[in-house]
Amino acid sequence: MQRRLSFVETVVYGFIGLVAFLGIWYLLPATGLVPQQFLPGPVTVVERIVTLTMQPFAGATLPAHIAYSFSRFISGFLLAALIGIPLGLIMGWFRVVDEIVAPIFDGLRFIAPIAWVPFAALWFGTGVGGPIMIIFAGAFPPCVINAYRGAKQVDPQLIEAAEMLGTGHLRMMKDILLPASVPSIVAGLRVAAGLGWQSLVGAELIVASTGVGFMMVQAQANVATSTVMSGMVAIGIVGLIIDILLRRGEAVIRRRRGLAE
């Protein structure tokens, strides 16, 4: 078994990887291997990001586009969690519900979120509903699956003890299944957030009139590669921040429950 890296080692190795990546990125356009028009250097992209924070492009500044995207993401993500987690717990507790819902769910969850884009466009046009629907399609399956797994992994002795005390179904789910399933649910939320954020950007490329994805489409139409890459950097940074926050939350919950990481 490999030893666990210390915090300092993790930071050092991460820094080395980042420097190597930026170095290769800088050298490709600088040496002419890739034309600057198609791959601007990191300095050019950073300068463009700074410009976009102050000057509007495609109707808004970069922070405003990010805010539009994030508000859609939160709406779709919360909707997926509020519906998916209870559904997963119910499927894990009631065998009849599991048998009824599972075939439909298993068929729908293999449809890629981006495949819902034409359907969302027909229903909502370029309004806010389309991207939220697509985010929901990406984030919903992990919420259901992990809540279901959490419910199935509850200690049978806890369930037996609660049943002996005459605990009803609703209280059983609220006081036994839900607390015991929290680590699995939080892990599912982390996966759901990643898929939801990726799905959002794909949706904004087609069915949105604001947001980072929309900004990138407009930049591509104007052959503004540095703006396209600025949007990509913004997407990556926001996605990383979301993942770090959820990962920290998952770690805290696991430590409080005495679970190994």
UniProtKB/TrEMBL annotation:
Localization annotation: Cell membrane
InterPro entries found in the cross-reference section: MetI-like, MetI-like_sf
CDD domains named in the record: TM_PBP2
Pfam family, one: BPD_transp_1
Listed SUPFAM superfamilies: MetI-like
Residues of the ABC transmembrane type-1 domain: 66-246
TM region(s), chain numbering: 7-28, 48-66, 73-94, 114-140, 223-246
UniProt topology in membrane: Multi-pass membrane protein
Domain of life: Bacteria
Keyword terms of this UniProt record: Cell membrane, Membrane, Transmembrane, Transmembrane helix, Transport
UniProt xrefs under PANTHER family: ABC TRANSPORTER PERMEASE PROTEIN MJ0413-RELATED, ALKANE SULFONATE ABC TRANSPORTER-RELATED, MEMBRANE SUBUNIT
Family recorded in the similarity comment: Belongs to the binding-protein-dependent transport system permease family.
This protein's name: ABC transmembrane type-1 domain-containing protein
Origin species: Afipia felis ATCC 53690
